[in-house]
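#onboarding

Welcome to the new folks! Below is a worked example of what a typical request in this channel looks like: someone posts a single protein sequence, and someone else replies with the predicted structure as tokens. Don't worry about understanding the tokens yet, we'll cover that in week two.

Example request:
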Amino acid sequence: MKIRTITTGISLTSTKEAAKIGLAGALNRQAQSWFESLGYVVQSTRVTTNPWGEYLAGLSPTEIVAKISALDLLAQELGVDFLNIGCAKTPEEIAIIPEINSQTSASIYTSSQIGDGQAGINWANARESARAIDRISRETENGYGNFRFCASANCPPGIPFFPASYHEGEISFAIGLECSDSVSQAFAVADSLPEAGEKLMEILSEALQKIEAIALELSQQSGFSYRGIDASVAPSLDPDESIAFAYESLGFGKFGQPATLAISAAITEVLKNLPVKTCGYSGLMLPVCEDAGLAQRANEQTYNLSNLLLYSAVCGCGLDTVPIPGDVTVSQIEAILLDVASLAIKLDKPLSARLLPVPGKKAGEMTNFNSPYLVDCKIMKV
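Example response:
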């Protein structure tokens, strides 16, 4: 098990609060050093802020982009590798996101809110988010800029994973894991799905309680609040740790074939009942381009976009790093976002959509992202 991220959240009132940003970066470095000294692999540390509209209120779009560009440089100077500027809450804010994306480095992430359980679906935000995804795809190489943006529904503050992350309140930190290897370990020695769930509960409970004990000690010594562990099963680029191949070790067939839904539900049931303080999604992640096995089965067309929506009803995080054709229309993107928002609100769970339209490519053709974070695979039909 690896620690995918230690994410510290801060609330800004302007983009010039170097001391607060530097404090968050220092806390991350202290936490990383502490965990690594105890034998853990920490893949990244990140800082997330309150929604950027709160600390850039009243400015013109041009001024907003300039301020965020300056914030990007400041964060880099202070040793912050990844910075999420929080979510956009209005169509006017969402409309600025493509320009923010093009004028900042790969370190800057953001999202939009397209609905929640109280207000329901935000139709205008969903439409504008679809326009933003379309524009970003056309204005960045291979559409890769959409890796730094997602549309989120019913997502609370405190998610340590990007791009859906945003913060509220006093400074605090949370931990996100990469634990698909734990699923592989549990399923490899199980003779049935119920037994697989029991073994996964044993393995994760023991591992996460150790991580939580360290985090609580860090919180006590630093004086900053510990928000919890996002226990989501985040995948690995290592084929030996693929979540798809772990599913298949149970003997029900390939990922996407019958029983995939049942296995997804069983994993999620474990994640929702762990004996630690959890936060964020704490669900099953199935990002198509971030898992070698998921990418391989996408190439074989054992599952599709509709299957992923179905699995979202019982598992984790929605649609993540899903490659779609470059000629997809704004209306088609909007329709997908509305489906995700409807599921999130109806089932009262956090879901997000990170869609990757690839310019010049059609369904069935291969992506060519040339990214250390993504596996190339065939583009899915919409």
